[in-house]
Specification:
about 280 residues, mainly beta, four-stranded mixed β-sheet, four-stranded antiparallel β-sheet
Amino acid sequence: MPPFHAAGIFFVSSDAVYAIGPKTAKNVTGFALDAPAEKGEGTPAFLQVEPTELVLKPGQAVKLHARLFDAKGRFLREDSTATWSLQGLKGTVSDGLVYRGVGSRRTGGTHQGHLGRFVREARARVVHPLPWTETFDSYADGAVPPGWVNAVAGKFTVATLDGQKVLQKAPDNTIFKRTRTFIGPVDWSNYTFEADVRGTTRRRQMTDLGITVQRYSLVLYGNSQQLKLEPWEPETQRTTAVPFAWKADTWYHLKLRVENTADGKVESARQSLADRRGRTSAVGD
């Protein structure tokens, strides 16, 4: 193996890659080798629950593991005597090791591993197949739909607006607190997402809000009075923007479909916007 060069510290911004270190590379003697994992010893100091961040289909079973580590972070052993409990999830834990996600609706929560003085948890959500319809009628005011990523209490809540249930985003103070909420798995494709949306005006700043399908977003921009179809927000070359005059406190219907074609390209289609008062699927700020 030839000698390798000493490197600096690299970090990436939205505009460039920066390197901190000597400008002239120096040869370094020695070799990079895969060292065997250090064997743990002593009293367990940490319990790890594995796997984490589960996305399950209804009825899918996953084996859970409880792994013990020493005070230096070295693996000791896997312990099959751990007991398990569920928080916010509809399912069963059998034999202390198997979690089966079930439920008639989308659910999300945690599974907790208990072993002696240790209690650790990992998140999971159960995602049902399409089609979906969500009116928020089954939720109390102040609730958050379970299993929706980034739809956390304090950011999003179910509320009653003009006599009907909506999902409402908190009016943050700056534009830098924009939020994206994910409600499905990452492997879906060739589907349509539509929602009734309604924006507001606060301190002379008007809402931006939209919907996303397979990373493509259809967004209403309030201050600029535009409608944009974005493949990825920072990548503006393929963004399509048209002038669109829209009003605060008025319902609009957004519809977006993305299809993967046989040649590896992607096609997206949007429906023309029209004022629409009625039931909502998303309300943002």
